[in-house]
């Protein structure tokens, strides 16, 4: 790491904390990966692996938590900027010999500031969520070794942590931020979805396509800015989606159901900022 | 008690847990759904169950609540599995306990009919001739509608 003139950029000339003005910095592609781990009893890890914990799908929940945390880093770390992340990927590796879960987060954006805090926050919160999901059976779990692995882009140059201990090569699978396919089943993790990111600051509707519909349209998750909606309801959202991408014409083919914030809904159901809208085929459980 | 899980369940264990230390229960009815090796196509080798976490639990909770409001029930256990399952694997379990058998039979039937048509689960079957998503059945909707007419 080229540390020619190390100084604390969050302190001004008088030593007071301040937020760095990034308006004049050039935009570049920034990426950062961080990792950490949570140690637990072998029995807890076994339960986690077989989906036997009382709170349900532990890894899927921790993945969503990590992605959400990355997006909200600026609300937690006082001098962090709000960033429109283009990608967040969270990966888990169950390590039986060490009796722990390795958590890796990778964040990316084109912008003026680095994303290492986002990656570190994502790992931390994913670990905390793992703790919460498993604490009913194991209160002695220990979170540790949270650190930055790599960072690319920006004035301070690239950084790669020395591979001191553990030569684990982690290749995180990318999924779109805002686009965490909540799918449980075979090959669920890291499923790639095509997402259209709106400006993160603008009010947005989060759209999910599930099961057969996701495969038929080739779209998992999409974020649509509220101001793209002709009318503030599901019908308006469908029109906006079709204007965005012709594949959404498929929403009119066959019977497609809809839920708003996880409650069954119809074309006339009103929508507001940050609503979650899911489209899916008729259900076939039981 | 409602659970969505990948791991297998044991009908006996679940029923014993529901009845444990209870002396007011006069009838317990249980239904187990299994993976068949034939469906829309023959030679089903496996199936994968996808669901919509969050909404699934809410939908199942709502169905059980409706059953409890229609019949005097002493206890309900509802377990649905997700992930990849093989023929003969159990998928779903409903155990209903009541003071009298009629309520237990009917509530169990009702919960399965509503689960089939209202809970966000989707099956993809893997067969010798390829994978496909299972389509809905009219019969399931007819079955669920019986309860609307009688209420």
UniProtKB/TrEMBL annotation, chain A:
Belongs to the MoaC family. It comes from the Bacteria. It catalyses: (8S)-3',8-cyclo-7,8-dihydroguanosine 5'-triphosphate = cyclic pyranopterin phosphate + diphosphate. GO terms for molecular function: cyclic pyranopterin monophosphate synthase activity. Residues 19-154 form the Molybdopterin cofactor biosynthesis C (MoaC) domain. Catalyzes the conversion of (8S)-3',8-cyclo-7,8-dihydroguanosine 5'-triphosphate to cyclic pyranopterin monophosphate (cPMP). GO terms for biological process: Mo-molybdopterin cofactor biosynthetic process. This is Cyclic pyranopterin monophosphate synthase. Keywords: Lyase, Molybdenum cofactor biosynthesis. The active site is at 132. The keyword Lyase applies. It comes from Halomonas fontilapidosi. Substrate binds at residues 79-81, 117-118. The keyword Chloroplast does not apply. Pathway: Cofactor biosynthesis; molybdopterin biosynthesis. Gene3D superfamilies: 3.10.20.30, Molybdopterin cofactor biosynthesis C (MoaC) domain. InterPro entries: Beta-grasp_dom_sf, MoaC, MoaC_bact/euk, MoaC_sf, MoCo_biosynth_MoaA/MoaC, Mopterin_CF_biosynth-C_dom, Mopterin_synth/thiamin_S_b, ThiS/MoaD-like. Its EC number is 4.6.1.17. It holds the Pfam family MoaC. Homohexamer; trimer of dimers.
TrEMBL record, chain B:
Belongs to the MoaE family. GO terms for molecular function: molybdopterin synthase activity. Pathway: Cofactor biosynthesis; molybdopterin biosynthesis. Pfam families: MoaE. One of its GO terms (biological process) is Mo-molybdopterin cofactor biosynthetic process. This is Molybdopterin synthase catalytic subunit. Its EC number is 2.8.1.12. Keywords: Molybdenum cofactor biosynthesis, Transferase. InterPro entries: MoaE_sf, Mopterin_biosynth_MoaE. Heterotetramer of 2 MoaD subunits and 2 MoaE subunits. Also stable as homodimer. The enzyme changes between these two forms during catalysis. It catalyses: 2 [molybdopterin-synthase sulfur-carrier protein]-C-terminal-Gly-aminoethanethioate + cyclic pyranopterin phosphate + H2O = molybdopterin + 2 [molybdopterin-synthase sulfur-carrier protein]-C-terminal Gly-Gly + 2 H(+). CDD domains: MoaE (cd00756).
